Structure formats: C-alpha cells, structure tokens
Amino acid sequence: MRFQTSMGTSLDSPYHRHPEGRDISELEISELILPGTIVDARELAGDEELTVDALPERLTSKAPPSCSILDGTRTGGSEEYRTYPYISEGVIERLIDADVSLVGVDTLNADDHQNPARPAHTRLLDQEIFIVENLCNLDSFVGESFQFFAVPIKAILILALAAAVLGARGVAGLSMDIANWLVIIFVVLAIVTFIL
User: Fold this and answer.
1) Homologous superfamily of 10-151 in CATH?
2) For the chain, what are the domain ranges?
3) Average pLDDT of the residues in 140-160
4) Closest-CA residue to 86 (of 98, 76, 74)
5) In 3D, which of 89, 104, 126 has the Cα closest to residue 14?
6) Residue 146: strand pairing partners
7) What is the Cα–Cα distance from 156 to 13, expressed in whole angstroms?
8) Is the model's pLDDT at 126 over the cut of 90?
9) What residues contact residue 98 under an 8 Å CB cut-off, 6+ apart?
10) Residue 22 above 90 pLDDT?
C-alpha cells in the first residue's frame, strides 16, 4: 500500500529521491530565488501529459538558471486535484538540456501518480533540478516575468534580516509604508521560524 504524504507547497531536494543527494539544509538561498517562466497547461485534461510542444521558446535552448512552473490550475480538495497534468519524459529531458534549476507545479505531483518509476523526480533531482509541488494562484503570472522564491522556512530569518535592513533605508520603487509592512511580515515569519 502507498500513500501520498506531501501536504501543502513543498520543495524536493535531490535527497528526496536519492539518499546520497543534498537535502534541503544543504541548498543555498541563491539556488532557490530564480527568474520564473510559466508553462500554461490549463487546457490539459487530468492525467494528460505535458509535451515538449507546450514549452515556451526560451526553454528550448541553454538558459540562465531559472525555474519553469507548470500551471494546470487544480484546486486542492477537489476531485480534479487528484487527476492532473504531469510532465512527460520528453519535457524532463528538455528541461535538463535547457539547464533549468527548478521546476514547480501547481498540482499534487510533477509525475504521473500512476507511474511508480517517478521519472520527473528521478531524472530532475538526479541533475540537481529542484521540484516544488502544490503551488497556487499562478494565473496572474502567465506571460509575465517574475522572481520565484522557494525559500525553506528556516531560511526566512536571513530574508527577514535583509528586509529589515532594506526596509529601514527604504526600497527603490516602494513607498516607505509598504517597505515597513514587508519588514513587519518578515520579522513575524522570523519569529515563527524560531518557534518551529
């Protein structure tokens, strides 16, 4: 008997699939803050694979470290959440060839849940390409440039300190009110980090 144990948004490091690989505590923050690209998979049916044809042009050749996010727009708790589009083996190889650093999905799993070989997890994590699952609210990023933060909760303390320093000086393009709220939010997260 097998059970899906991931709950909420989760980050998989190589150790998740390969015991000799790095675990989350060994990842650098710089590896987890990346420019992102949305791969729009909203037209795919549940249990349908995402093919290479769906990938944007920038993922067809070598690119700077980045992340690719699959947007299947599935809602947790609904029946469609359990039937979701997944990454085909062709896409896995293309992402590896393009030197993508992280792959995120707004679904339960990057792999077809009916395939116990878990090719996305096996191949991507073997190549040090991290996987983030159960993302949400990606619709507003389709066609947009954005920075993706896949920072584990324990690392938020470092970001809180950086936000406090930046917020105290003001952040270019943000009003001081917004900068101050960001500092407060990050400080609260830092306190939560110590409690956890």
Assistant:
1) Putative cyclase (3.50.30.50)
2) 10-151, 154-195
3) 73
4) 74
5) 126
6) 36
7) 18
8) yes
9) 58, 59, 60, 61, 62, 63
10) yes
Residues counted in the chain: 196
**Strand, coil or helix: what is 59?**
helix
Q: Which of 153, 133, 141 lies closest to 81 in space, CA to CA? A: 133
- Identify the CA nearest to 54 among candidates 98, 88, 102, 83: 88
Residue with tokens 């936000």: 163
Q: Tokens for 83, please give them.
A: 């039937």
pLDDT for the residue 89? 95
Whether 121 has a pLDDT exceeding 70, the answer reads yes
Residue spans of alpha helices (H) in 16-102: 79-82, 89-97
Six-digit token string for 130:
């991290």
**Taking a C-beta distance cutoff of 8 angstroms, is the pair 150, 102 a contact?**
yes
State residue 18's pLDDT score: 94
Average pLDDT over residues 81-102: 89
* 3 state DSSP class of 41: coil
